[in-house]
């Protein structure tokens, strides 16, 4: 309850921030975009990470208001980069299922894109399988409209949920993100490797792109590259960065 009150205050007082973890395109070797990750700069506590408060946002429904703030903040940042030497950056935001059901995600996104004059192609949404399944009809309806605008959709933490191949192809999506659990031991555990390879193969046969998250070492990266994974994200390349550091990394790589 204390945490809920503190989070309401955080929203009112502008204590939330987004950090950005780069994704690298394995075909070009260049930064292809970034995932926006929520941070709470809580007075007296320093930087607080989502593991400590996202569940409270979700349980209290505050995630709907926070989600709208996240989309607006991401679009504001895309616009700032566009007008700077950094240039166009694809930004992925995490979306919770309650945003589809209780919020008006389509309106929030349209307003943010217009307010900041952001091309929809630069915005990507990450949803978990659980979020997709919890209200499939409504989710498909909203995602279909958003994709008509040019927004990209990725399934996050893929492989940990219950999506069958048949189910997956009903959803209007562009990408799968292989869950960190299968990436962690990809070069040492044949079962994890088999799952990762199956996801890559399945994704490509459905014309979807594949991102691996949690890549921490060169052997993991090389294994994924050899096996035709399209993009990687993880500590090997970079931790989540402040907007300033993210922009600097892109500019230095040009
Ligand atoms: O940044 P970090 O690795 O600590 O994030 C931990 C978890 O919190 C991730 O699994 C991520 O999906 C979730 N998370 C981070 N930022 C957001 C956000 O903006 N919205 C939602 N719904 N979840 C987020
Ligand atoms: O949306 P999601 O929960 O998947 O967010 C990604 C989470 O994974 C963030 O909390 C981020 O800090 C974390 N993360 C990103 N890269 C790595 C990595 O290479 N190793 C580990 N252990 N965690 C990572
Ligand atoms: Mn994510
Ligand atoms: Na994830």
UniProtKB/TrEMBL annotation:
Annotated ranges, domain EAL: 1-254
This protein's UniProt keywords: Phosphoprotein
Keyword Membrane: no
Keyword Membrane: no
Protein name as catalogued: EAL domain-containing protein
Organism: [Empedobacter] haloabium
